[in-house]
Amino acid sequence: MPCRFLLVLMLVTGALISPARPAATPRVPNVLWITSEDHGPHMGCYGDTYATTPNVDRLAARGMIYTHAWSNAPVCAPARTTIISGLYPPSTGSEHMRSLVASRRRCPSSNGD
What we know:
By secondary structure, this protein is mainly alpha-helical. 35% of the residues lie in helices and 0% in strands.
């Protein structure tokens, strides 16, 4: 009997001193990250009058655009590999793209070889 009374007393005390409202969830930012490659700033939101990009332009008007951006590789495959892996091209061996593949055809030389 004394154990039951002690248990009930602990439960009632815990209920009385616990917060009446649930803990507020922390506010997290709402982020939409659009990644694309193999194009320059040829979109309307960057001032290009020829490009027709109404959806991206609307997103840019409500969010932010990058005015100083660069790529970690000058060609598409190493840049894409970096986006996917999070590693720089030299660390994955992708910086040379296809330049290390031996060619099967040889160009004729000017000296008649």
